[in-house]
Write a structure and sequence with these properties.
By secondary structure, this protein is mainly α. The chain is 37% helix and 1% strand.
Length: 449
Amino acid sequence: MRQVRQGRAGQQAAQRWAQRWAPRWAPCWAVATLFSVVFVAGLLSPLFGAAPAIVTAAVAAPERPLSEPPATLARAEGPKRPGGPVYPPQELRVRMDHGLHLREGVQCKQCHQRIETSALSSQNDLPTGEACDTCHGDQHPWTAQTEGPAHCADCHTHVDGQRVTATSIIPKPRLLFSHEAHIARGSDCATCHGDMKKVGLATLAQLPKEADCLGCHDGQQASDRCSTCHPSGKDGRLLTTVGDDATAPKLLPRGKGARGAEHDLAFVQDHAAVAKANSELCAACHDDEFCMDCHAGPIRPMRLHAADYLTSHAVDARAATQDCSSCHRAQTECRGCHLRAGVTDSSEEGQFGVGSPLSFHPSGWSGPPGTPQGHALPAQRNISTCVSCHGEDTCLACHATTDAASPGLDVSPHGGGFANSKRCTSLEARNRRVCLKCHAPGDMALDCL
């Protein structure tokens, strides 16, 4: 009896161990078993030949060009309509073999009779029924009094008896194009549409591609500006979308015509070099606010310049190659940094103050009234470079009248005849407080007299 009780106790202990530890160790046993099988199979494969592969390598998916939109684009921007941003989809309901007609000696202008006077891409340049009747007989319009039977089904695909039930739908392309101008410059049909002798029914595939256009629009033979062919708004920037239609395909730079600005998956990182090298290319579609939406700080830090740009930014600032004020405040950021660095004449720590041997400007830049004033034209051209170092008091010291709140030397910055000009009247009507900076209240000059 004692041995029976010990055997039962051992069985119960084994069951408790299995219930507690077996679920935890099961994955490990499975991995160890699989590894052993693979190891043994690898040792025996040279003896018995290549055994069926137990673990197959994952087949690499074909590389997707970065220029293609990502697969998640529909989720990110919503569904898009079929077609492209320039040529909307078409519904062609005719039977027309271009190659057959050309081989029979028919010329393009015999069917497209209005093409030489077509100045707009929205103009309907398709063959008219009367143009077809020249060879196919009197069919347009066909009536009961017309001699001979109707042959509508020979060309039209949607026919009910002797009546055409549906015609082709060809939306207007979003493109600025003049057949008249191109024909006048010597372009023929094959230059833009290719060899039509090998084409049956012409579709979107026979319409000009951007690469075809850039063959002539290279900036020398013809303008290479984007707005030459693509519609633009009142501000001069391209219309990349059709109104407020969120489902319309967007006009994005693709291929060689993008000049390195392909809006692919890598453009988020690569656009910095493109923007620095050719800011006008970006400005064709985007304004400064578009950049500031990301680079204002909350989304991305303001890292637009190189690490050593502090030592070379004066060249760009003076040449006005960039609009510094789109990100920086001249009177706080620029002037504050210049004050701390001593590049100023308006503080005790300034290195360019009165009596200093250092001079930031060349000789003849400014001086007493009646002497050459070299600063006048640069100040009119780009006043932002002046206010990065000088405050308003610097200008008022000379240009304010003697009766103004901050008296000056009464040196007028305006040219002769300014008091009686329309410009004086418009500036005074727009904001008279600007005038009061130099003129005292009651001054007759405030009335442009």
